[in-house]
Design brief:
The structure is a homodimer of 147-residue chains. In chain A, 41% of the residues lie in helices and 20% in strands. The first copy, chain A, is of the alpha/beta class and 147 residues long.
Chain lengths: 147, 147
Amino acid sequence: MRARDLVTDFPTVALDTSVYEAARLLSTQRLPGLIVVDERGLPSSILPGTQVLRLAVPDYCQEDPALARVVDEPHADLFLRSLSGRTVREALPREPRELPISDSDATVLELAALMARTRSPLVAVVQEGRLLGAVTLQALLDWAVAA
Amino acid sequence: MRARDLVTDFPTVALDTSVYEAARLLSTQRLPGLIVVDERGLPSSILPGTQVLRLAVPDYCQEDPALARVVDEPHADLFLRSLSGRTVREALPREPRELPISDSDATVLELAALMARTRSPLVAVVQEGRLLGAVTLQALLDWAVAA
């Protein structure tokens, strides 16, 4: 079993897609994360759902639970619903890091090691300079536990 | 909107649950992760799906993509399907870290900050020393993008 056997179509977003649109895509299509593509259609980043959420949280609340706690309920609601003004570009991590991208020949062991190491529930699969789609953690587990 | 309004029932596992059973639960119930409970039924850890997968990957392949690559396809398949002999206890991270657990009063901002900080797609919710269930990233995003 290889990446090409487990890959499925996966929606992509661009760097200038709004965070609201990205969140809507995650919500309505029940995706574990997003593939961000560059102008050539190749994956430039993989964004776990939790990191899309990060943009709804003001900087001063990011690291300090006590500061998130003092924001009252109406304002907390407002923050979470004010995702439209920002773009996916702003949600990307600042430091370079290993991306969960594999070629279509990757074995299930390579996919599992990559997901575990990058803590990403999806791996983007490329073949001959083209994005094929993604292997999700769900697809990998479904295969692993199948009789 | 508070944690108590978004919480849903969530299956739990024990420290001695087999990793195969944990993977089966993730797969069949399409869960983003697992709540591991102690003998009192209280959350002792939260295990993202990617970390359950980690136990199927031999130590020498965890950090080095080149070593995962040399394992041939039949053996790679075998590794991924040999989850039954190990327990959830072995899948837990060795270093102590912040757990995504909140009380039922937490606002959506606190939940979002906690998910972003711990990179966890679920938060376990406790009230008066009892586990109520979990708020998932999906439930939080569904609420945030709802008109």
